[in-house]
Specification:
Helix content: over 70%
Structural class: mainly alpha
Shape: elongated
Distance between the termini: 96 Å
C-alpha cells in the first residue's frame, strides 16, 4: 500500500470501518513509514479535539441568529417569537390542526347522514309506488 492510499484510508481507519485485511495492511504501512504514522496521529488528534469542541460549547445557534435578526430589523422579524416558543403556546398550532380535522370529520359525517337519509326516503317512495 502506498502512502497516498493509506492517507485515503485515514478516515475509515479512524471510524474502524476497514476490513481485517485492509486494516492489517494499513497499520503495517504506518509502521514502515514514520512520517505517515505521525500524520495519522495528527489526524486522530485533530478529530478528537474537534469532537470535544461540540461537548464544550453549548450554544443555541438558532436563538442567537433570531435575536440578532430581531434587533437589527427593529422587531420586524421574529417579533412574536413563534418559532422559538417551547412552552404552552407551542401547542396552539397543534390544537388548531386537531380542531380543523374534527370539524372536517363532523362535516363529512353530517353529509353522509343526509345522503343516507335521502337514499332511504327515495327507496321508501319507490316502495309506495
Amino acid at each position: 500500500m502506498t502512502s497516498d492510499e493509506a492517507r485515503d484510508l485515514f478516515s475509515a481507519a479512524y471510524d474502524d470501518l476497514l476490513e481485517d485485511d485492509d486494516r492489517a495492511t494499513f497499520f503495517a504501512t504506518l509502521a514502515e513509514d514514520e512520517a505517515l504514522s505521525e500524520e495519522y496521529d495528527a489526524f486522530i488528534a485533530l478529530l478528537d479535539g474537534a469532537s470535544g469542541l461540540s461537548e464544550d460549547l453549548e450554544v443555541d445557534l438558532l436563538a442567537g441568529v433570531q435575536t440578532k435578526l430581531r434587533k437589527r430589523s427593529g422587531g420586524r422579524f421574529y417579533r412574536d417569537r413563534f418559532s422559538t416558543t417551547t412552552g404552552p403556546g407551542a401547542t396552539l398550532p397543534l390544537a388548531l390542526a386537531v380542531l380543523m380535522i374534527l370539524m372536517l370529520a363532523i362535516a363529512w359525517a353530517g353529509l353522509h347522514f343526509v345522503q343516507v337519509e335521502e337514499s332511504v326516503a327515495e327507496s321508501a317512495g319507490a316502495a309506495r309506488e
